[in-house]
Design a protein that fits this description.
heterodimer, A: about 70 residues, alpha+beta, two-stranded antiparallel ribbon, about 25% helix, B: about 400 residues, 3-stranded antiparallel beta sheet, 15 helices, 13 strands
Chain lengths: ~70, ~400
């Protein structure tokens, strides 16, 4: 599974770093980081899904690797 | 041409409509999703209710402008950054975001905890209180005045000024405009006095930080600092109080949910997000169209004032499963309780921290409470404060 954040869409709601604290953290302005596309470790797949399902701006993209 | 469907059933201004607005929102979404309502201040405006349309308005600030003609709140210059549209908006926002970032809020948490404990100490042993007057109003307003750098000794005066803008006791639209305008002048006078003093001598507060902030490499003008202060004054003195009112009013009436919060403080952050969704204490944000457009197939002319009904988007069954059920374990909660798009609430992380600490401390001391017998709660239209929130335990 791969995850990335569209920084144009992200408005700093902070739902992702609240629900997926092992994948995201707040930067100094309150927006999430990191945002570049990366592979989600298998044990964090549930956190990745929660972040994806709770972003009000739909800024998070999840892709299942086959 | 604007062709919104007339709906004479609702005004979104009557107190009785503010008690359980969720069913009104549903009716609007189903029958008049782009509505022309018959209230005093809603006449001539278009109310949009579906999540898809609300998101679309929030995400296209170039078409749905947040500039100062969208709303009448007593200011003579645009509030910064709320009433400044992109591209200028992002420069101001970038300078202000760090003040309210989660990392900063960690520093203020001990003071919030100390103050809420003092407030609870005052009432815990008496077995009853007016939660709005005793807790929900003094907590955020004291914290906010301290942070901003306004004298806390004048809190009652400032709360009266804030209410003079948000809930003026007017009987006509003209009277309302006049009251709001006059109150706005008083708020400017207070801010100008304090900003002058801080320009002469800095202190450890937000106003001093803002005076020294650079926006695109340039210092802010005195007017800019005052205009930021005006926005903070209205936003900081009202929204967290109303949110705390709405959340505690819900818990007082729903013993199962209240018990869960009392038993497991770890659920509190999730309870806050879910109740911000369901209750939507700030249910509306205003916009004004800059060009002819349409929403859900309905034509809307340039220059139309738009009531963006966040509360309805937050309970839209097209997006949520069982939206009128309060479920702290909801898998997907993309709520717009803090708005969305570029103007999303600047103070959201402060609000969340205050709400969390208040609910933690309250339930540690007063875990089992309910509404006073026979009480009919009074929710204010607009920002939903509950001023008669009488609790017993």
């Amino acid at each position: 599974m791969r995850i990335r954040v569209d920084t144009e869409l992200c408005q700093g709601h902070g739902r992702c770093y609240m629900l997926a604290p092992d994948l995201f953290e707040a930067d100094d302005d309150g927006y999430c980081q990191p945002t570049d596309e990366r592979t989600v470790p298998a044990e964090l797949a549930d956190q990745a899904r929660r972040a994806f399902m709770n972003c009000p701006e739909d800024a998070i993209t999840l892709t299942e690797e086959t | 041409m604007t062709d919104a469907a007339p709906n004479s059933h609702y005004t979104l201004e009557r107190p009785e409509e503010a008690i359980n607005p969720q069913s009104i929102y549903r009716d609007l979404r189903d029958n008049t999703p782009v509505a022309s309502l018959s209230g005093r201040s809603t006449t001539g405006t278009v109310t949009i209710t579906r999540h898809e349309d609300v998101m679309s308005a929030l995400r296209t600030p170039e078409l749905f402008s947040s500039d100062s003609s969208a709303v009448q709140i007593g200011n003579v210059r645009p509030l910064v950054p709320l009433q400044v549209d992109p591209p200028h908006h992002s420069k101001h926002r970038k300078a202000l975001d760090p003040l309210f970032a989660p990392k900063q809020m960690v520093k203020y948490e001990p003071r919030v905890r100390e103050l809420i404990r003092e407030l609870i100490d005052e009432v815990a042993d008496q077995g009853h209180c007016n939660f709005h007057e005793d807790i929900a109003e003094p907590l955020p307003s004291t914290i906010f005045l301290e942070l901003l750098g306004l004298p806390v000794s004048r809190v009652d005066e400032f709360l009266a000024l804030k209410d003079g803008i948000i809930r003026p006791p007017a009987h006509s639209l003209e009277e309302r405009y006049e009251m709001v305008r006059a109150t706005g002048q008083k708020i400017y006078a207070v801010l100008e006095e304090v900003v002058e003093a801080r320009m002469a001598e800095r202190q450890d507060d937000f106003l001093s930080t803002i005076i020294d902030a650079k926006v695109a490499g340039q210092p802010l003008s005195r007017d800019d600092v005052v205009d930021i202060g005006y926005l903070f004054f209205l936003a900081g003195l009202d929204t967290v109080s109303a949110s705390l009112d709405c959340i505690v009013a819900y818990l007082a009436q729903n013993p199962g949910h209240r018990q869960r919060v009392a038993d497991d403080p770890a659920v509190i952050p999730h309870a806050i997000e879910e109740l911000l969704r369901y209750e939507s204490p700030v249910p509306v944000v205003p916009r004004i169209t800059t060009a002819d457009t349409e929403m859900s197939g309905c034509p809307i002319s340039a220059g139309t004032r738009i009531t963006v009904l966040l509360g309805s988007a937050n309970t839209d069954e097209r997006v949520w499963d069982n939206p009128e059920e309060v479920d702290f374990d909801r898998e997907s909660n993309k709520h717009l309780g803090f708005g969305g798009g570029v103007h999303r609430c600047l103070g959201s992380h402060l609000a969340r921290m205050e709400l969390r600490v208040a609910l933690e401390e309250w339930h540690a001391r007063v875990p089992d409470y309910r509404l006073a017998d026979g009480l009919e709660l009074r929710y204010s239209p607009g920002i939903r404060q509950v001023d008669n929130l009488e609790l017993v335990w």
